[in-house]
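Researcher: Go.
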Amino acid sequence: MNENIVKRNELLAQTVIKGLESRNMSGYYAKDADEALKIALSLIPEGSSVTMGGAMSAHEIGLVEAVKNGNYNFIDRDKAEDKRAAMLAAYDADVFLASVNAMTEDGVLVNIDGNSNRVSAIAQGPKKVVFIVGMNKVCKDIDGAMKRARNVAAPINAQRFGLNTPCAKTGACMDCKSPDTICCQFLITRYSRHKDRIHVVLVNDNLGF
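Model: Structure:
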């Protein structure tokens, strides 16, 4: 990565972390995926029950594989016979792994969901939520974050899931009411009432969508 981009990301991350701290959330900066993995694992005690929503960023840094192969109780909804039971188990998990569709420079997290199991677990339930966030997802403000979530993240996710939505065909949000829409629930996390619950690992990389 260009050294000027690296420097910019380091400086911007400091601003984001201060914003997170002002919102009773914890922020960390990792210079690369390897460091992000180490930080994330340091936040997950061995023996913890761990689950996740859709979080490509957690896969990309190797976190999901490390948890599956480590001394953890990983609740894998993709392999569960009863997927609903697996999703409900997430609410009582020790750790929930996630990413964001976008976030602001002052620490507000923005997520859109279709089934809503991901945003509901972020909002309440698991004792700890660990976010893996590439610096590509940091936006100036709420307006910018919402636009990114709807016009970048949503169309790409609709395409990868093979959904029949206008955004999957045009690449941009059409504010649809399609039966396949994944823009059912919008969660804006501006403050955490519970200290030490939400942890955001910012990574000097382009991760996720």
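Model: The two ends are 18 Å apart (CA to CA).
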